[in-house]
Design a protein that fits this description.
single chain; mainly alpha; two-stranded antiparallel sheet; 9 helices; globular
Length: about 210
């Protein structure tokens, strides 16, 4: 599977999830997004196994790539596990059926003055680590990789709302600070992580 095929898979998943968000009811939209994440994870697992076998057969050719890939997966999985841990603590079912206090999700990441809490800063550090590693593995300066991590993982970038006012990365990520909105944003962030892993695998498999 080359990077073009991986890109098509990512686009299809993205379109499927976006359609689910706006077409189906709340519960189905959430489940569709979760399924997209699961499918992506399964593909990544298969690609990892395949590449590890290739690197065993041709260690001199793939050793450096194997190290970069391993570190990218470690950081990406660390961020994904953090998101999953947060989701379990807040309990997605309670969010879906409106069984928690209003702003319960927002208070995990934002203080009353709008600044990040300790958990918010922890999330930022993990995204920043992924951004740095995403740049490091892009040794051929491929635009499809660069455009993705610059658009999805650059927490110190310049972002603006619909009124043209500058906002932070996290205010853009969590533009809807309701419990449901923030839960879905965390899921979309996890899917972004998976998509970058898939795009990266597609590039190294094409060489």
């Amino acid at each position: 599977m080359n990077w073009k095929q991986i890109t098509i898979i990512c686009m299809l998943l993205s379109c499927w999830v976006t359609n689910a968000q706006y077409t189906f009811d709340t519960y189905i939209a959430h489940k569709s997004l979760v399924n997209s994440i699961r499918i992506s994870s399964d593909i990544i697992e298969g690609r990892t196994t395949f590449f590890e076998k290739q690197s065993e057969e041709k260690p001199l050719m793939f050793q450096k790539t194997k190290v970069r890939m391993g570190e990218l997966n470690r950081i990406a999985n660390n961020l994904s596990k953090y998101i999953e841990k947060t989701q379990k603590e807040i309990n997605s079912e309670r969010v879906l059926y409106d069984l928690i206090d209003q702003d319960a999700y927002r208070k995990i990441f934002f203080k009353s003055n709008g600044r990040l809490t300790a958990s918010g800063l922890d999330l930022k550090r993990k995204i920043d680590s992924l951004y740095v590693q995403a740049k490091n593995v892009n040794v051929h300066a491929l635009s499809q990789l660069e455009n993705f991590y610059e658009g999805h993982f650059k927490t110190n970038g310049e972002y603006y709302n619909h009124d043209g006012e500058e906002i932070s990365f996290f205010d853009r990520l969590f533009y809807d600070k309701s419990n449901y909105g923030m839960m879905m944003a965390m899921n979309y962030l996890m899917l972004d992580v998976k998509m970058y892993q898939l795009l990266y695998y597609g590039t190294i498999m094409s060489y």
